[in-house]
Amino acid sequence: MRLSIPVLFIGIGVAAIVAFAPKARTHDIYGEWRVPNNPAVSCCNNSDCRPTRSYMGDDGLWRAWNGQEWLTVPPERLLPTDLAGDGRSHLCEKGRWIYCFSPSEPKS
After folding, report:
1. pTM of the model
2. How many other C-beta atoms lie within 10 A of the C-beta of residue 92?
């Protein structure tokens, strides 16, 4: 079967768009995040960052939900508030190890 030239060019164009399309926007927000006490290290490997529930405890420390339990966020892993710009807290964590955490504005 022979394809006409216009059909062939359309197929090549679609393949190029798919191949060079940017990553999903939802994960792009983590791409530039760095560990606060070690800016040479990224917070995210595209599998460990996500929006989460959180609260500030009476002791002034943040707690973040990792899907199984509330983790206490070490102060040296705390990023600026609402760094993602979506009003939610975000946790970069794997195996209970917190790489980074960006809290939402505390709710009253």
Report:
1. 0.71
2. 25
